[in-house]
Structures are given as C-alpha cells and as structure tokens.
Design brief:
This protein has 256 residues and is an alpha/beta fold. 43% of the residues are buried. The protein has 9 helices and 8 strands. One of its GO terms (cellular component) is cytosol.
C-alpha cells in the first residue's frame, strides 16, 4: 500500500531543446525522481507530451498539408518512440512503465470510466508507472482534450491523487512576462482567484503542444477546487518534484 499517489504532467517544452529535439537527460532526471519517490512509497502517474515531436524527429518534414492529419501521423509515429525512451530509462532504474492512451469519453460516467480506473488501479497495484498521453492519432473532434493539462487534471481527480504537479519550462505563474524585470513569481493561488490579468502577457503555448500558462492555471484551479493541491513548476531544474514533495517552496502552488 502506498502512502501517497501523485500525478505529474511533463510538457513538450520541458523535454526539448531550442531546436525542438528531445533531450534524454531531462527525461532521465524526471524518471530518477519518480524512482526516488517510489522508494518512499509514493507512486506516480505520469502524463507526458512529446509524441508529436518524437514523430517529427523520425519522419522529418511532412508532405501532408492538412494540419490535423499531419499531427495524427506525427503522433502515431512518435508514440512508440516515446514509450521506448521511457521503457529503457525506467528499466535502468529497475522499474516498469505502461502506456495509457485515453480519450475524453473515458472520463464520462459509465463503462469507459470504470475501465480507465480499473486499468490504472491495476498498474499501480503492481508497482507499474502508467504513462498517459492523449491519443492524438484518433482524438481529433469531440473526443479531443484541450491539451494534456486538462488530461492531467482529469486523471488526478479520477484517481483521487494527493497532488498534481504540472511541469513547464518556467518557474510558475508570473505577474507579467517571465523575462520582465518588474515581473514576480506568484507563489500561492486560490482555486477561485481570477488571474487573467497576469495571463495576458504570460501565455506561451507549448511549441508542439497546445497548452499555455492560461490552460495550466485553469486546470490547476479545477484540480485544487477538488482538494488536490496543484503545483506549476520548472521541470528543467534538478529535483523540482522532490523539492515539492519535501515541502520546499518552488513554483506556484494552487490550493484551497
């Protein structure tokens, strides 16, 4: 029995460099922290972006002009590559991982929702780390999440997580553009706070994803409103996850 379960979402900007290529040492640092938590009897569900970028690395420039179809193709090619990367890194730390590709209907009441819960609970019971990502190869209409921030928030609520950690490439929510001299990190946020005035100049989306800071804050507040403390923090820094679990002030905390 695990003392605590957390959901960690890692965005495309965290795992890529300025040339939009996946940086393996970043993934390794991520998995190393998950392995350390496992030794503390804290189990993780990982929500990971990256399949589209991984597909682009394999295929290169696509001849497909339709943006949606192009994304489907990149994702279909990239998903197994991402899982191979994760499988090998988790194996290096003596751990197992599994792929979960939900669509929006899996969170609606009924048999799909039950199947989703049963699958994740079974994996956690076996000490296997579920790695969830939206199935971009087929989720293109009504079944599409707005982004993986929404998916992470929904999984955290569905699985009664104790914490949700959303990793991005900046330290959290700022009062203005993160690079501006007069901009300050906002360390604590309530679920009901309206912070749109801070989002206007701070809403950079993922390069190959869809979620910017506005999305992260919205879904963080939704999770927090359901009594799941949520953190928006810099995943490129060492030990960010461990620091959050240890109660060290880092990033933006969204909580009741």
């Amino acid at each position: 029995m695990y003392k605590e379960r957390i959901v960690i979402k890692v965005g495309t900007n965290v795992m890529t460099n300025k040339d939009n290529r996946i940086v393996r040492p970043v993934l390794r640092r991520l998995v190393k922290q998950i392995a350390e938590l496992y030794e503390r009897d804290i189990i993780t569900i990982l929500v990971s972006s990256g399949s589209v970028i991984a597909g682009k690395e394999v295929l290169g420039k696509s001849k497909i002009k339709n943006k949606t179809q192009r994304r489907q193709v990149y994702s279909a090619i990239g998903q197994p590559r991402m899982m191979r990367l994760y499988y090998n890194i988790f194996h290096d730390f003596g751990m197992k991982c599994a792929q979960v590709l939900p669509t929006k209907r899996d969170f609606s009441p009924g048999v799909h929702r039950e199947n989703m819960v049963n699958c994740c609970e079974g994996l956690l019971a076996e000490g296997v780390i579920p790695i969830a990502n939206e199935d971009d190869a087929v989720s293109v209409t009504m079944s599409m999440f707005s982004d993986n921030d929404e998916l992470a928030s929904l999984i955290a609520q569905l699985m009664n997580a104790d914490k949700l950690i959303i990793l991005t490439d900046i330290d959290g929510l700022y009062s203005g553009h993160p690079d501006a001299e007069n901009s300050n990190l906002i360390k604590n946020v309530k679920p009901e706070e309206n912070l749109n005035k801070y989002i206007k100049d701070n809403n950079k989306a993922e390069e190959e994803g869809r979620g910017g800071m506005g999305s992260k804050l919205d879904y963080a507040q939704q999770a927090a409103a359901n009594n799941i403390p949520t953190y928006i923090a810099n995943g490129k820094k060492d030990n960010t996850i461990i620091d959050i679990i240890d109660g060290k002030a880092t990033g933006t905390k969204v909580s009741l």
